């Protein structure tokens, strides 16, 4: 499932509001992990999808 989530062409965008503090915190975490903020957020989202994969069993993502 991880491959299916990560392998597809990235054509969609997700936009959400964040406080300055949240953005700064995420940027610091990304910097510490030597990754972009986008990569960090993709990683976090992928982990959440995999943690809830039973929701997608029927959809066969």
Keywords:
61 residues, 3 helices
Topology:
Layout: H1 2-7, H2 20-32, H3 37-51
Helix pairs in contact: 2-3
Structure notes:
The protein is mainly α and 61 residues long. The chain has one domain (19-61). The protein has helices at residues 2-7, 20-32, 37-51. Helix 2 (20-32) crosses helix 3. It starts with a helix and ends in a 10-residue tail after the last helix.
Short description:
This protein is mainly α and about 60 residues long. Helix 2 packs across helix 3.
> Radius of gyration, Cα only, in angstroms?
13 Å
- Mean pLDDT metric: 88
Low-confidence runs of at least 5 consecutive residues: none
Run of helices and strands: HHH
What portion of the residues fall into strands of 2 or more residues?
under 5%
For the termini, the CA-CA separation is 7 Å
Instruction: Summarize the main sheet.
Output: none
Q: Please state the overall shape, judged from the principal axes of the Cα atoms.
A: elongated
Structural class: mainly alpha
Output the number of helix runs.
3
What's the number of extended β-strand segments?
0
How many domains make up the coordinates?
1
Residues in helix, %: 55-70%
């Amino acid at each position: 499932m991880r491959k299916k989530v990560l392998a597809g062409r990235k054509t969609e965008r997700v936009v959400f509001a964040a406080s300055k503090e949240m953005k700064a915190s995420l940027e610091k975490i990304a910097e510490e992990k030597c990754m972009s903020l986008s990569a960090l957020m993709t990683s976090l989202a992928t982990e959440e999808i995999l943690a809830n994969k039973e929701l997608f069993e029927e959809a066969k993502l």
